[in-house]
Amino acid sequence: MTVDTATAVLGAVDEKLEPGNGMVKSVIGSTLTLLALVVLWEVLVRHFQIPGWLLPSPSAIIAAMIEWRGELVQHTLVTLYETLVGFALAIAVSIPLAVAVVYSPLLQNTIYPILLTMQSTPKVAIAPLLALWIGFGAAPKIIVVFLVCFFPIVVATASGLTAVPASLIDLIRSLSASAMQTFIKIRFPTAMPHIFVGLKIAITFAVIGAVIGEFVGSENGLGYLILISTSQSRTPLAFGALVLLTVMSIVLYYAVALLERLVVPWAPRN
Known about the structure:
Elements: H1 3-48, H2 58-67, H3 69-103, H4 105-120, H5 123-134, H6 138-161, H7 166-174, H8 179-216, H9 222-231, H10 235-263
């Protein structure tokens, strides 16, 4: 084997390994950075003797999470239920509505401006009204989650359905394909990557929406636990609930991303 051949083979191997190595380096780098920040937080709190009710140390937060693990699990399941149900409801309504808007000029001129107006309305202002109209059960929180997830999915789906190249539409029409065949074979598969972009944005908003609903009026959930613990100066417990909310949001995001890889393997990857 010549030197040039060996160099070419090694270059090809490096190109194949480069994406994987880049991902590993990214994970290791972000993990080490997070650990360094946590250690720095612990050191600063101990050094300046900051009161626990004002800013607890990471060790105090972990201790509170262990002590209150039963309550944290119970409230986490409530928030997770509200998040998933509202998110699923948003998917069930948003995607068919986006299809109808794309295929109907009348709906584009009537429904779409209303959707934009709804999105511009602060959800924090709507949550108290929902609690007044519906009560303090899970329903108002699910509706808030639905409202915050609804618009991103509609916009992403409509954008994907209209992103099909005109040449591809002309080609399938030349093959005498019906409108339904064009939708099933061309438009919807083309829109799938766009739809999942909207889903990944919406799932992070879903957790926020559930917490907003629990802040306004609730008797359980992580948002309710944060309000109660802060009012009783149990700040480590409030931070523990925040940690669980962050973990929940990250896990749900990557669950949707994993589903995208399984359902839409042709989607471009970063």
